[in-house]
Amino acid sequence: MKNFPGAERKGAGAMCSLPNPPARRSSALLLKVAAALSLAALGGLSMFGCASPVRRHMPVAQHAEGDRKVLAFDMQRAGRPDYWEYLEGDGRVHAIAFAEASGQPGSPLVLDEMDQSSIPHFVILLDGVPFHMVEEARRDGLFRLFYAPSKVICCYPSMTDLALSDVMHAGACYSLQALGFDRARNCKCGGNSAYLSSDNAPWVAKVNYRASPWWDGLMYLDPQKVFNHELQGLKKTFAKFQEGEAYGYAVGTAGLGTRYGREGMSKYLCDIDAFCRQLVYERCGRVRITLAADHGHDLTHAQLVSFRDVLDAGGYRETESLREPRDVVVIAFGLVTYAEFYTQDAAGVAECLLNHEGVEFTCYAAGDKVVIRDCEGFACISQGPGGELRYDSSQGDPLKLNPILERLTHAGKIAPNGEIDAEAMFYATVEHEYPDPLARVWRAFHGLVQSPPDVIAGLRSGYCHGSRFFYEAIGKGVASTHGGLRRDTSTTFVMSMLGDLPPALRSQDILPALARLREVRQRSAQ
């Protein structure tokens, strides 16, 4: 869950800018304008045009033609069908038709037989969509224009800027969240000003549409208005493209999910399905769409936690900079299911945090290893000479991998020196409580961001960490959020009109997989 303007903790002191940011307006001005926008949101947002650009259309008639089901829609609301979808036995729309002057359907257009070289491809990136919600929606009849959804396992922590930077191959973010810590300057850096200017979001430069981050400040106050605004923006942006690819992003889905949980997610999935059908109808079938998301959501109400007491009891001091050996800088920004800490004593802080009832495990870098610790013991991840990862669970198994490792050993996927085949581990853990955990935890400290924290704590279900201001502003409480290593927040989806994708992918695999699909379609059309 993202933070929003004005939500930085009071008394936190001055924030450094992110290192070497581009020239920006002063952060004070940014925060003043952001605060004004938040107040406008509370006053009803009368300054914005927020009417939904989407009409949901239920079939007005349906019949069977052999093994094929035909659905008729009145897209123009004129009292008669003007658009037909032909679903084959697999439940997917294989062909569409449009009304002729007589009012009867014209010859069906087989979607996969159309020349796609001159058809635009729109990639819509959503914020915070659990895979199982999409799977359920499709079973209920939504998203039938698309091939079946594939699971996507995102990075750890499961955060938007990190995951979408992976999707768009945009390079590493500076820190895990827009608020980070600059070791050279020994102070917190970024925060709301960095968020509003996308300094920690390199992926933004690679998409054609992303609503102004000012709107994010309104997202959890009235997320439906934000989402409607984004659908309008997506539609206007896509209207400029008659061929090639265009990328758009919607953050409003995160607000709807966080504030309203499953009910909010179900509603926005219906809106997205209607939006895609409308694009296909208005373009007479000459468009291909891919839907994907950054991370999942846990669909669990969460209470906000603080670590001050447990750090104090362990002899540590929560501070804004690291001057003494037992100083700890705690990053509290978005409301998420993990927490990050900067310290000169990573091992000690990691052990201390396990005394908190909300902490499930901690992890930290120690020399050439990453240590994962829970209340029963610890394990170590290291990189072997061949480049693959190893997992030493002789002192404990906090990631619960031993049964899987035993199967991989019997399958010959673990080398004598302990190196584990990365692809075998990925597919063996897609349905695990912690998907692809070795690669994701290792990368959190080695390459995911430029300035990784010293300690990351994974929180138990029902707990979150971040801004108290933000937590209280939501009012009804956090109905769902993300950030952790567990399957629910780590697993999202991708599905495309281009064709079938592999059943499971990492975030960074999405665009290469789509490129391969386009090549296959273009070759088959020649």
Topology:
Blueprint (H helix, E strand, L loop, with lengths): L26 H16 L18 E5 L2 E6 L9 E5 L5 E6 L10 E2 L10 E6 L4 H9 L10 E4 L6 H8 L11 E4 L4 E4 L1 H5 L12 E2 L12 H16 L6 E6 L1 H31 L5 E6 L9 E2 L3 H6 L3 E3 L7 E5 L6 E6 L2 H8 L5 E8 L2 E6 L2 E7 L5 E4 L9 H9 L11 H7 L8 H9 L9 E5 L3 E2 L3 H7 L12 H4 E6 L7 E3 L3 H16 L1
Parallel strand pairs: 6-11, 6-12, 7-24, 10-11, 13-22, 14-15
Antiparallel strand pairs: 1-2, 2-3, 3-4, 4-5, 7-23, 8-9, 12-23, 15-16, 16-21, 17-18, 17-21, 18-19, 19-20
Widest sheet, order of strands: 14-15-16-21-17-18-19-20
- Quote the beta fraction: 15-25%
- Shape by Cα distribution: globular
Task: Calculate the mean pLDDT score and round it.
Answer: 88
Q: For the terminal residues, how far apart are their CA atoms?
A: 46 Å
Number of strands: 24
Indicate the low-confidence ranges by residue numbers: 4-14, 20-49
The helix tally amounts to 14
Helix content: 25-40%
Largest sheet, strands/sense/barrel: 8 strands, mixed
- Computed over alpha carbons, the radius of gyration is 24 Å
Structural class: alpha+beta
The quaternary organization reads as: single chain
